[in-house]
Amino acid sequence: MPETPHQQPDLLAEVVRSDFVEGWHRGSVVALSADGSELWRIGDPDRPIFPRSSNKPIQAVGMLRAGLDLDGELLALACASHSGEPFQIDGVRRILAAAGLDETALQTPPDYPVDEQEKLAFIRAGHPPSSIAMNCSGKHAAMLATCVANGWPLETYRAPDHPLQKSLHDTVADIAGEQIAAVGIDGCGAPLFALTLTGLARAFARMATAPSGSTEARVATAIRAHPHWLGGTRRDVSALIAAVPGIIAKDGAEAVYAAALPDGRSIALKVDDGGQRARSPVMVAALGRLGVDVSGLDDFATAPLLGGGRRVGEIRPVI
What we know:
alpha+beta; eight-stranded antiparallel sheet; two-stranded antiparallel ribbon; 11 helices; 36% helix; globular
């Protein structure tokens, strides 16, 4: 049976060096109104993608539904692609310890912190790559704690047919309001659930507007209150949450980004070539197109290009 044809990705950003356009980033964006209807689109937001780590807040909702007992900064850390800063690594240990576990239970692949400063400090201190330093260790610690709460096997918690992963699959589909298009394996080894950008935006809107006390609202509250636990002290996603009142947001690998405002308006985007350097400028521009005050995000409205150690150009959005 032939595949359903999809629209081609559209131009999202251009690469300008010394006033000469030397390249482009293409992709798709969708913006939804507070009532869930589509405000505008670029490219093909109906084509399923792997949202990568942008799925983490939705998966955290699933873990709460399954009995995970977390709130505050540790719940934000369960949603995180953390920078590997000491307070975050300590937080992962706290999640594990509360479940009677230690870092040897983690099945994240050994890695260095994703933040370059933290990586250098880690190496200077003589630390080898480790599972707890890997940016998904907060999510994995929360997955293990959820398994302990339910008496589920720990050794196979990453398996797609594990009760935990089946539960998260159903939660992601429920909150996104669509069927999971595909199941893959993420960079951390855990199952990954494909959605359309429209479904991803819808899921973030539902978390951002959920009634107080609900599992969705608990996740949104943790993200808003603890943005540096979600990303890091030098991360663009943390700066975005801190700068825009009431917003929730999560970045993902392959240049995925999703955000929702407290009134329910939401955005999801993917840069088709996976170019992370274009992700933040496009999100800032998309929020500006929604009428959001993005004056506090000037550092992320473009991405610098260097020549001879100085800025000679930029990646700038064209949406």
